[in-house]
Amino acid sequence: MAGKQRTALVISGGGAKGAFAVGVLKYIYSKYRSTGWFAITGGTSTGALIAPMAALMAAPEAIGTQALETLVKMYTTVSTSDILKKKKIFEVLKHPDCFYESDPLNDLIHHHLSPKWFEWLQKPEAPECYVVYTNYKTGQKVAASPKDKGMIRKRFIKAMLASASVPVVMEATSINKDVCYDGGVRDLLPFGKAIELGAETIVPIFLDPEKFPTAKKALKRMDKILLRTLDIMKDETLRNDYEMAQLINIGIQAKEEILSAFKDDPIAIEKLNMVFMKDEFVPLLGPGKRLIKIITGLRPDKPLTEDSLKFDPDEMRKWVRLGEKKARKILKESPFV
Hints:
By secondary structure, the protein is of the alpha/beta class. The chain contains 13 helices and 10 strands.
């Protein structure tokens, strides 16, 4: 169910804080679903667990509503033990690559993304849906979609799991025999793929406030230091991703204004388009770039938690309500028309 605008939803990483994004989606679905839905949904880490369900909300109402209910259940009832299995000390010593095994999360994804739902995501009428993970062998980010040639459910679920796997804390996911981890290492808020797919409006959901939070407690444990380090690195990645999207947005606006100024001169238009098609300009001004607007402000006002891997149902229910409240404040009109 597409709207007049080719609108993209992009969700950042953030573990349990994904509950905030679920609250935003809950509001958008109840308020604006009758006007259209996202043509593109993408995410990294916890966003990669949410994006496919968000795409399913474009399906016939019975499936769309069930997908939303599944998301709400996932982010308001599960505890950390439902996501991760802590390794015993001798297991860590024997295989010192991580502190937690991801089998519970893998089982959860398999349970919720049924074969029937995955088949619907592959249909032409389904939104373009993608998740981003990092291939540690090549060092590059990888975007996987149900519509990729040869993609099967098992392979796509591996991509979702890899995207949500925090290095060292969680075990790696093996994809084509390569070690793969969290997409946030390379692309915490994956704007690029949405722009590549022709997004005209992007609705990004950040799971942290604009100002990076000060640590409240002394960092004396190895795992706390590691998580803080990852948070700092991800904050920098997030800012870079967002700044690049803004730069592309400004570039496209400038391009349109220049073309409009010479609209009565076909020879000038032809020459300008030749300039815009130069290799060095295509990433910013290429013909597939149609970004008109980025809707800002869908993020918490204050830090939700210092430990994004602590899944506390009581806290997450609060964050869902915060997401709804923020969406109500920011989205005064449908993003699909």
